[in-house]
Amino acid sequence: MKLRVDYRASLRLVGTVLKYLAVPLSFPLVVSLYYGESVMPFVVTMGLTVLVGSGLEQLSESSDIGAREGFLMVAATWFAVTVVGAIPFLIEANGIPFVTSAIHPESTLANPVNALFESMSGFTTTGATVLGDISFDSHTRGIMMWRQLTQWLGGMGIVVLAVAILPELSVGGAQLMDAEAPGPGIEKLTPRIAETARALWGAYLGLTVLEIVLLYGLNVTGFAPNMDVYNAIAHGLTTMPTGGFSPEARSIEAFSAAAQWVIIPFMVAAGTNFALFWHVLTGEPKKLVRDTEFKFYLGVIGVISAILAAVLFLGDGLVSVAPSGGTYDQLYLEGVRNAIIGGPESSLRQSVFQVVSIVTTTGYASMDFNAWSAPTQYGLLFAMFIGGSAGSTGGAIKIVRWYVILKSLRRELFTTAHPEAIRPVRLAGRAVDERAIRGIYAFTLLYLVLFFVSTGLVHLDAARIGLQVSVLESMSAVAATLGNVGPGFGVVGPMGSYLDFSNSSKLYMVLLMWVGRLEILPVLVLFTPEYWRR
Amino acid sequence: MGYDRGWSLVRVIIIGAGQVGSSIAADLDHTHEVVVIDCDSERVDELNYSLDVLAINGDGTSVETLEEAGIDSADMVIASTDNDETNIVACATAKAISEAFTIARVKNTEYLRTWQRSEKAFGVDFMVCTNLLAAESIVRVVGLPAARDVDPFAGGQVQMAEFEIDDDSPVANQTVREADRFDSLTFAAILRNGEVTIPRGDTVISPGDRVVVIGSPKSVQQFAATIAPEESPGTAEEVVVVGGSEIGYHVARLLEERGFKPRLVEHDADRARELAELLPGTIVMESDATDVDFLEREHVGDADLVVAALDSDEKNLLVTLLAGRLGVERTVAVIDTTPYVELFEAVGVDIGVSPREVVAEEITRFTREGGAENVALIETDKAEVLEIEVDPDSILAGTPIRESIAALPEGVVIGAITRRREFITPRGDTVIEPGDHVVVFVDSTVIGDVSPKL
User: Fold this and answer.
1) Which of A148, A369, B237, B358 is the most buried (most CB within 10 A)?
2) Eight-class DSSP state of B32
3) Interface contact A431, partner B, CB < 8 A
4) Which fold would CATH assign to domain B234-354?
5) Contact list, B276 vs chain A (CB under 8 Å)
6) Could you tell me the residue ranges of all domains in chain B?
7) Rounded to 5 degrees, what are φ and ψ at A158?
8) Predicted-complex ipTM score
């Protein structure tokens, strides 16, 4: 069989990206130096990634790639980067024979599957964790910062970053970005794609810095005593990419209400199309407020938050008895019940924070929402499928797809009564191409099929190893990994972890996070024979 | 522009002897020196015999041909081929080598929009968009039940409307004095069996008459409601446009702009889709408009107005007759072949609109004597409604209307006056001042006599 895909050219570009990965690795290295920790995990990884990257670069002379090579390059880049990203975790936990000894041998990331899971969860901005103990007792500050940084790199997209920086990607850049960017299609902001990529990363970087400054400002002014420089940077790095990792075991619950209120608008911004921020910065702020998707996005968040806030305020949104062996105890439950039931600020904050976090697929939590009653949890499960806007850093199905689906369903109702009527589906006044609508239906259906099949597989595998999980927990675990949300319910709740699942389930979830981040089709197409042949 | 410049007639060069070109030539050949340029030699020969014009075979965009046509002494160049770009280039060429006033006919409204943005664009002094003009004349009758023709004057402050009086209309068999209950409305004329009558207070309006009224848009609207009280007023009027031609498209688009929610029926799937994308406020349906099942299912019979804008006169006739039988209140047919208009109206089409006639009417504005600002033709040629800015030499200036009318022949009615954009109802003792805009109804038989005096 003769392959019709120039995989060497694709891998050559993957090599270039890997080589440059040494640059961001220097950031946790500096952190470790500052705190007087071992820098071996990062030094070794930097050496490896440059070595492997340079090796791959020798595969091909040409970096000219077509559409097919583009899919392979994007999918392979994400996988390769994830593997490299897992190496510091492995070195910290296992050491390297004859070179360096283990720093924290008790780390759950000693298991290569766990390390890969944590790395994939990081780069895909999922935020699902398999850390047994989230604290500086079990991990160095450098490693914890690396975990945060993987999310920041993955948020706006490694390939988008590569297109912004590497001149050799300028020709096929639009196609590469399209394969990587969330949502159907990309918006070219400038005639040159590298400029567009730089504009998007510029807006992303700017918002990240702004959030870090504001969070640290709260600390300085005394509103958030434990939001030190380390925490401000760590959370700045995982809000804008809708990541969700936190070096705090209790996630954002560890911080004051003021800090939680500050984080909410940044999560909302992270789920917004970044092209809109570019328009705002270039003097067209009207484009933001007039954008159909943005208005629909705020509307959806507003409606779900209002309903859940009301339910929480009235007391129906919380369970009354803590289950034995749960992630929270009766004492914790009494505390949150006292604060939320009848507490307007508290119920509103808890509702808005959780809804924004789940809809944008960030995955932070300002409380253990395992203590929410079944109907309110169901509201969050529903929200896991909504996702952020196209061109944002959010995951899942994306708000614009739902909008188009709802509009085309309304059209179906109309044409049932008037079969001859021709009604284009309009998005912001412009008719959406019927092919694009078909693509949106296909993606959404594929997403849902993958969700239901995967839930079955994960639930079956849990039963195989005797892990007690409810169907809702399995569903939430799959929805949270496929949609790059992070936390689910029960064992995989916001204060829990995915540690208890079997290695095979975890590997399967690594796959789910990977295809979920790249929106399924660019990865799935690699597994069809038609892709490789004529 | 005048009919004559002392010893010679106004010289008009018409480029393109298609339907519109030859019809303009025919309109002008008695009063103007007309030269027609066309690239089809057979048509050129034909024109030389059929009309009193000089027809030249050649390319209207070439300087050589234009010079042969006498561009140096031409006062006006009308480019009226079937190709927009040719018309524009011909005007630009004429402008480059002469002082002639250039008129271009276009189909594409994009060019019109460009020209409207900068009136010096393309070297075109006046641009006429056939399809848009036809659509505008159709849309004007919408919202005015029973209206057959409506024309705006004085920047929209005055309207001339022609209404048909049915048997069951409340004003049938009333005298004009009884029917005219509106201050700012003037009964200009009654058309009965093709004859123009200037009504007096005691003239009785019979069923089947057509009355021409001139007044403020509001009074015309109220009058429309009086003569046909059972029809839906205003934007509640249900309009179905049949045929997605350019005219059909513009009708739907203009109705959307006015707040209507029209329906448009188009047979071709691709065109229907295209129209649906262009017209967010219109329900576009893909179907054959002669399919009776479809018409019944969609309750087209309940519509107040059906506009047939298909690509052939015969189909338009069929559709309008079918719609009339299903119970549609009023039907409009677009008729390309101008002589058919009367025939179609005789068989049952309520309003026949000929795009060529509409364009000719528009171009006539520029060939008129006496600086008429605006002209409307009644029943093609029975009478004219003119808008005039009164200058101090006019017979109207400084005298009460009663006296100036007495000095003019029978067949002249002062319909409305606007002074500094304010509407004034003309009465016998109203004194017209220089600078006023006067909308006046003139019977064609006296037009030659009256025009120079106004």
Assistant:
1) A369
2) S
3) yes
4) Rossmann fold (3.40.50)
5) 422-424, 431
6) 4-124, 139-227, 234-354, 360-453
7) -65, -40
8) 0.74
